[in-house]
Each structure stands twice: as C-alpha cells, then as structure tokens.
Amino acid sequence: CKTDGSGTQCSATAGSPSAEICDTKDNDCDGSSDEGGVCGSTSTMQTIAAINSHNCALATDGTGRCWGLNQFGQIGDGTTTDRSTPVTVTSLTGVVAFSGGYRHSCALVVDGGVRCWGGNGQGQLGDGTTIGRLTPTAVSSLSGAVAIAGGDFHSCALIVDGKVKCWGYNGDGELGDGTVSDKWSPVAVTSLSGAVAIAGGGAYHTCALTADGLVKCWGSSGTGQLGDGTTANKSTPVNVSSLSGIVAISNGSSHSCALSTDGTVRCWGSNGSGRLGDGTTANKSTPVGVSTLSNVVALGAAGLHTCALLSDATVRCWGTGSYVGDGTTSNRTTPVTVSTLSGVAMIAGGGNHTCALGSDGLAKCWGLNSSGQLGDGTTATRLTPVAVTSLTGPFGVKLPRLHVSTASGAPARPFREGLTNHIGNRTCALLSNGTVKCWGYNGKGQLGNGSTTNSITPVAVSSLSSAIATAGGQNHTCALLSDGTVKCWGDNGNGQLGDGTTVQKTTPVAVSTLSSVITTAGGRYHTCALLSDGTVKCWGYNATGQLGDGTVVDKSTPVAVSSLSGAIAAAGGFQHSCAILSNGTAKCWGSNLYGNLGDGTTVQKTTPVVVTSLSGVISAAAGNTHTCALLSDGTVRCWGYNLYGQLGDGTTADRWMPVAVSSLSGAISVAGGNAHTCALLSDGTVKCWGTSGSGQLGEGTTVDKSTPVGVSALSAAVAVAGGYSHSCSLLADGTVKCWGYNGEGELGDGTTVNRLTPVTVTSLP
What is the pLDDT of residues 213-236, one digit of tens each? Predict the structure, then answer.
C-alpha cells in the first residue's frame, strides 16, 4: 500500500489492494482512499446548497465541504484560493444546513446557533463587525434558529417561535426592520410572526412562508420581486398578491417562486430570459403560473433561471439558456427537462448554476463554472449535468426539521420521507418514484396490496403514486400525495380511513373532504392531518377525545381540532394526539391516564391543552402512552407512562410534565414505539431507550434501558421510525435496517426471527 507521506504504511493482507493511500488515522487497507479524513471512509452527504458561485455539502457527521469561488474566504478553509473540488470547512461541526450570498457562507448548527464566514463589508457575518473571516464565526446573540437564508450581502434566520431575524446590508430594506441602515448583528423583522420557512437567494430581497400558506416579502422591488403589484421597495413585509395554499418558496436574484399544494408553481419579478416560466420575458409584479408544469415537489430558483424537482424524480428548468441544463444555450421561457438526470432527491439553485442530489449516490451540477462551482475539477461551463468530483456517496436526503423548505431549497413536504411503522406490526417505505412498499402483519389489509396475507418481504401498495409521506396506526396506513390529499387503507372499524365508512379496505381510498395537507400522523385507531393554514383535522376513534373536537364520538370523516392554529407538526399516540406550534410550544389532547398530555394532570382532555414548561420544540413523537419532543438545541424531553424507562430519564416513574432524556444531545429526529423511544443524532447514529423484550433497542440484548443506548453497528442513518416492538432506520445509501420483534415479518428480512441488532430489509430498492 502507498503512504501519504506521513511515514505510515498499511499492512498488506489477503485481498487488499496494492495501491491504497492511507494515513496515521487508519491502517485498514480496505481499498478506499482518504482525502484527509479516516482511511477507508467516504463522506456521506446529507444535503447540498448551491449558494452563488460556490456550493457547500453537509456530511452525516455534521461537518461540511465547500467548493467554487473563494475570493473572500467563502469556502471556509482558511484561504482565499478558489476550489474546483470540495474541501472541508475549518472548525465546523454539528451542521444542519448551509446558506450564503455572493461573498459569504453560513451554517445552521444543531444547537440552534448560526456560524458564518467570508466577506463581511456590510456585516453579513453577523458577528458585530465588518471584518472578513476565512473560517466560521458565531452570529451574535442568536439562538433557537431552525432555518437560514442568505441574500447577496445579507443573511436571515427563522427562529423556532416563528419570527425571523436578519443582518447585513439593508440599503433596500432587505432586513425588514423598517429601516435602510446596515446591521452588523441580527435584528427582528417587523410585524412578522408564524413563519415556517424563509427564502433568501434574492440579491436584495427576502421572503417568508407563514403557517397559513401565505407569502410575505420585503426589500428591493425594482422588477416587482416582492409580488405586491408595485415596484416600490419595502422595508417591512408585504403580502404577495393573490397567493395562498403555498408549501414552499424559493428566491432568485430578482425574482421569486412559490410551490402550491396542488404541485403547480407561480413566479413573479424580473423575467429576463424567461425565468418566470410563463412563456414571456415581461416582468411581473404579481404571481403568474409557470406553463406546462405540474407534480412539482421542490423548487430551486437561481440568479437568472429557475428549476423544479418533479414527483418522478426528474428536473425541469427555464430561463437563461446556458444554465437550464438541456444541452443548449437557448433561453427557455417555459420549462425544459434537464438532460441525463433522473433519480433526483433534492435540488439547489446557485447564482448561475444548479446542483442536484441523487438517490444514485452522486451530486451533479450544471451551468456557469468560472470559479469551479460545478465541482468537476474544471472551470468549463457545462450545458448538461456533471458529477461533483471527490464527493463520493452514498447520498441521502436531510429531512427538514419543520417539514418546510430550507434555505437550500429542500421541499416543504419532504420528497423522500423515508419510513413509517409507528405502533403497528408492519413497516412501510416511501420510494423515490412516489410509490410505497410495506411488509409485516396484514390481517386488516394494512399492507395495501389487496390482500390480508402477511408478507415477510416488501410488497407494493396497489394503485398508489405521487406519495410524498406516509403515516401509520396500529392496523391502518395513510399516504400524503403531492396534490395535498390523503389516501388510507387497512382497518376501518372506527372510521380511521376517513372515507365516511367503517368498512375495512385492502387498497387505498381517498380521505373525504380533505385537501391542502402538508403532513399526517397516525394514532392507534385514529389519524390526524396538518393543513397548510396551520390547523389540524382528525378522524377515527374518539372515545378519549383524541380527535380534539370537544366530543368523544367517533368520526369517519375529518373534523377540525378545536381552538388550534399555528401548528407546524403533529403526532399521534395510542389514544392521544399532539401538535407543535410555530412559537415552539406544544399542545396535546385525548387520553391522559399516565400524564401523557404533559399538562401536569391525569385528566382526559377533548380539546388541546398546553404542555407545561416546554419551549423551543421543533418536532414530536407519540408512543403508546408517552410523548417526546425534540428541542432546537438537539435535546429531547419526554412525559407520560414510564414503567419500562421509555422517558429516558434514568427512572421508571411516570411523569406528568416533560423531563429531559439523560445524556442525549445532537438529536435531529425522534420516534416513538409502544414502550420505547429512539432518536436520530446529527452524526448519523441512533440511540434508543425503554423496553427491549424483543430487542427493539437494537443494542444486542433484551434488557430494558431507562437511558439511551446506541444501536449496534448502525451509521449513516438519515431517518428513524418506531414500531410496536421493533424499530427501523433509513440509511444514506437508500437501504433500510430494522431490529426487534419479527413475528409477522415486520423486519422485512425474509424471516420471522426476532433480531437484537439491525438487519437489512430485503428486496427494497
């Protein structure tokens, strides 16, 4: 084996290569080169951000790599040398997302803080100075951030309470504080609340999506990019005209676009080269529909062009010809398909280029490449996608923590939600083509394949396409479709399928009178849906008030949860439900026998009550009779039944109010089972706690644990789900591993043998 000059050489073993590069960190001779990390490892990327003339990619270990223009140090490697292949950002860990502008980059980290680097002449790094930084510096007095967005010379952060703070250049009012004075540290955007997503990317304007599906913009409007029907700059937010039911937004240099629940797109602002996609080149100060475009799941607006990811995992672009990726230099005023590109899971638009993250383990980019921003080792413009060099996969999709768009253009409703098993003895996986496969127990038709026969390997759900998320109860399953509707199948004895009947269905049926849904949650015999206006509707079993409508009467069609607004996420338990609000608090309703509503009592509630002493919440998971919440600082708090240690506080005492899970940090997702809980950490590992009688904690024993333990031999995880007595994880390479009880084949490994450590689900692409 070759050395890297450090004097260390691998020991040749049988089957090892004769030319491996290695270093002092690892001498395993497994045939992989190092690139400055551990010999034999590769960088598993979770998400990609195309910023301006540079890009950044997030690895599962919470570090990042950037490439492209580096004149002002925006690559973050301590130099000002342009990089045509990725390099590691110095002294940066715990990253959740990237954004930036013309001369700077920013990273959202797991503790809710933000770090920025690069040019700082207008205070866009937010550290209280105008001194440029070649490596990351912390943004001053900022906490609780859950998303970030950057303009050319300013940056903004979405805070967990639904407010937005911005800093940097403010000559056109792009900071939204009612002034036109630059700010070197964050200031609050005036008169803005209930925000669930933000979009920068605009040279001098910013937009926010609110929980009620509306869009507000502020800053420069010389070409109508604020969408309010004028070309007058605004230093505080104004409503975009005639726009509602929006689930994602994205900004270009001087134009903006919005994705609706029906999968269509509308754009406004500058229309040079046709970047609004309406077949003309005339500027528009109010939204116009993009021609011949539907089934969109994500947007990536760039400087002079726009791209959309479709539900079939292809990409279509329009605008300046050299950047649309169809192999020509002709401007396109309506969408054209990007050549030789399929299996896409995520897109991100930069200044004059676009990048796509694929399920095939590759990142590909196209467009202008003058500073190496395409990452292919050259500076040649590319009219069709090229692979990013030295950024080896496998790749996965970073699930947005609020199920909304991020600064890098991830979909509002995740394109690949991953896994659902919840409290039943089966598992379902959402595939990148919008179909769903399920396996395990099928006595009530919950596998959706038209039968009631168990399956120990995955089977396709019949007549289902365009799915973008799944949710499950004990014996029923539901899928959210790209048009904002929901279909369900399986047990229906209490109306949990929502079709107006109580008749069991072995194939999907549409939930009645339900639209504009952005996520769903399944309880034991009930289901809930979060709508784009921030309200929640539920249906099914209601004996303990788990539907939240003030009654205990079952409902076979959706009813609104009483006195609930501003919701951004929902969770369903055995006989209770919860919602996370845009201000970072939580409300729950239904059964409360063990304190599982978290209000300090054990009194059943038929309408929502506030969870006591809980703030900074970004997601939640409900088990059988316990509930857990993920906070913006990466910690988890739980409450309710605790006989098996499922609250993770080191005891088995029930808790009527939230308690912190012991020794757990860096969590980015949480999942609840019957009497156990699991958390996905930012380093791609999973920890579980609670009952382990069937091995559902995955650490090789059947011993209950009241504090978190690591799942054995599991890394590069991007999603986790908890079943009744089993757990599953989606890995970055698209495989699924499960562990625990397997009596009905719910682990999907072709057997019915319980597994104390993870096994791979077979026959699952």
Answer: 899 999 999 999 999 999 999 999
